[in-house]
Amino acid sequence: MILAIDIGNSNIVIGGIDSSKTYFVERVNTNHRKTELEYAVNIKDIMDLNGFSLSSIEGSIVSSVVPPLTEVILSAVRKLTGNTPLLVGSGMKTGLNIKMDNPKTVGSDLIVDAVAALKNFTPPIIVIDMGTATTVSVIDQQGNFTGGIIFPGLRVSLDSLSSRAAQLPYIGLDKPGRIIGKNTIDSMKNGILYGNAAMIDGIIDRMQDEIQMKASLVATGGLASSVISLCRHKIHYDDALLLKGLQILYEKNR
Question: Is 109 tagged catalytic?
Answer without folding.
Answer: yes
